[in-house]
Amino acid sequence: MIYSQVRTNGICVIRPEGDRLTALGANDFRREASQLVDEGNNRIIIDLSDVRFVDSSGLGAIVGLLKKVGNRGEVVVCGLSDAVRQMFRVTRMEKVFQIFPNPDAATAALDG
Amino acid sequence: MFGYFQLSPDKLGFYVVDVAGHGVHAALLSVAIGHLVTSQYFASQVVSASDAVDPAAMARDLNERFYRDDGTDYFTMFCGVLDRTSERLFFCQAGYPSPILAREDGTTEIVGDGGFPVGLLNPAEFETEVVALSAGDALILCSDGAIEAETPDGIAFGEDRLRGLVASHSHKDVESLPNAIMSALSQWRGGQPLEDDLTVLALARSPAA
């Protein structure tokens, strides 16, 4: 399950439950996040502050959300732990996603 | 999953693949890749008519074949060609963890600085890189199941520990390295089975005669 908070101008912060985004919860994450996009939220901030581990399924779910939003909006990430940042580096996702330190910095950048 | 092919007397091609996710879907994707990547396919993609090698060309072709706009299936891969004549390793790192290069003199290096996985995004750039691999050197590839293996308290094994393990292992005994890695991880896990599957591929060039 995910926690979401709608901010201004269609900006929505979503936070996966728990400290791991893995095969176990990736499908639920993708389904619930997709629903938020279907409801018109197309500027998504994925807050990974509490997540210390993302596996390949978790990454697939995050990129799946990016593909769903496509040109209609933006998907950015924030709060990457060292291990998650390392995963983003090895898979070059740091070139695909804008990365911010926290949700407020991401919101300011998207809303600016 | 992995494979290797003698492309010519001097060139050895190899690849390792780790499909994202688990279950039937991931298993079917593994089977599809295994059937596709034959010796003939590997050579046709990677070796040009002028005998130049470009492993990234295979990653590009696989990305075109397996990418779906509405899909989330993908895999990470490391593929390469070891050229005994030039004593160089040509490789493409497609999201697979960086291998460890164990030099004959006992030093170790981390190879590559990342690359896009296959089938996740399109377009995606894939690059061929080169590193010297002399007689007596060895290359050790482990899927992410190794560095991500956690103790019962949730501490990951990590790249540094894996590198230290390879460095402390006698480089003359590469064949026993996969089992040594397995037992170190089992100990790290406190005897619990690994959460992820694990592939270890160790390649060594024979020492100079």
From TrEMBL, chain A:
PANTHER family to which the protein is assigned, alphabetical: ANTI-SIGMA FACTOR ANTAGONIST TM_1081-RELATED (PTHR33495:SF2), ANTI-SIGMA FACTOR ANTAGONIST TM_1081-RELATED-RELATED (PTHR33495)
Family, per entry: Belongs to the anti-sigma-factor antagonist family.
The protein's name in its UniProt record: Anti-sigma factor antagonist
STAS domain sequence ranges: 21-110
CDD domains recorded: STAS_anti-anti-sigma_factors (cd07043)
Lineage of producing organism: Bacteria, Pseudomonadati, Pseudomonadota, Alphaproteobacteria, Rhodobacterales
InterPro entries, alphabetized: Anti-sigma_ant (IPR003658), STAS_dom (IPR002645), STAS_dom_sf (IPR036513)
Domain of life: Bacteria
UniProtKB/TrEMBL annotation, chain B:
Keywords, ordered alphabetically: Hydrolase
Molecular function in Gene Ontology: protein serine/threonine phosphatase activity
Domain spans labelled PPM-type phosphatase: 2-205
EC number: 3.1.3.16
InterPro entries: Bact_Sigma-Reg, PPM-type-like_dom_sf, PPM-type_phosphatase-like_dom
Domain of life: Bacteria
Cross-referenced Gene3D superfamilies: PPM-type phosphatase domain (3.60.40.10)
Protein name, as recorded: PP2C family protein-serine/threonine phosphatase
